[in-house]
Design a protein that fits this description.
The chain is built from 15 helices and 12 strands. By secondary structure, the protein is α/β, with parallel strands linked by helices. The protein has 2 domains: 177 residues, Rossmann fold, CATH 3.40.50.720; 137 residues, N-(1-d-carboxylethyl)-l-norvaline Dehydrogenase, domain 2 (Orthogonal Bundle), CATH 1.10.1040.10.
Length: 340
Amino acid sequence: MKLCRIAVLGAGSFGTVVADIAASNGHHVCLWMRSERQLQELEKTRVNSKYLPEYQLGDSLSFTDDLSVALQSVDLVFFAVPSKAFSAVSAEVAQRLPADQMPAIVSLTKGIEPEEFKLMSEILSANLPNCPVAVVGGPNLAKEIALGHPSATVVASKNKVLREQVQAILSNQSFRAYTNPDLYGVELAGALKNIYAIVSGLAQALGMGANTKAMILTRSLAEMSRFAVRLGADPLTFLGLAGVGDLVVTCTSPLSRNFRIGYMIGEGYTLIQAVKSLGEVAEGVNTLRMVYHKALELDLDMPLVNALYGIIYQDKPIAHLTEQLMLGAHAQDVEFMTAR
């Protein structure tokens, strides 16, 4: 495998883990962050105490808070910044890259840009039109990956060479990367599952049984795929790591911020109180609002989205969730089956 020069932008939990995996595979990797304080800590201790306090980073990984330094002669740029900062950072990267430098760009961020309902790959393509694009999705709880628990991810791109290159960069003995050509399907799955993690957390707090949890997971999958296929995704993508895999882990793990937000709401917290307790806004809260209005525009039936929107944004009682699940229109169990 050709060794590459790689910049990872964003020193959150997943960006830090990805940078360390790539560096441990022999690539020259620079992890960029805006915080000078965080930079000093990483250089001194090689521990990201805010996000991965028990994880020691390898000696070969370098750090900087200078974007121009991070981008110098790079072959690939991984974007691991929050979705709200994604457009600004990618525009800044475009300004700092020389005109003849066109590295491949990879999004590690799961979310949707709120103003124009743009996926992260669409923002990258708009701001860096000459660079090939890939995205990474799937059940990627960074703390478990850092601990060496067997884990897997999916690399999606329309460019076969790029997705196989990223696959090789990210694979090691405990972390395996698979590939998928359905860029938008993988990306939409990563954004949409956050909504259903909130629903699952709420159900857990209410003491709902295994039957109900199974019902929520399967109907969530139906809603996700229905919505994504209308926007051009392949329904089969939702049977893989980006769909079922990411949905299961996000809807069942207490490490999921979205699950925890839902759990707090189920315990009687307001959204503001839950966000304050968590310390940051879970991505699914913003995604819910965007998907609700987009579904109305597309005239799509999404009972769980409608129920959660009513609870969070319209002050409807939590019983509204059960009503939407049980009193909605009868539907076929598995969508997109060949008619018989």
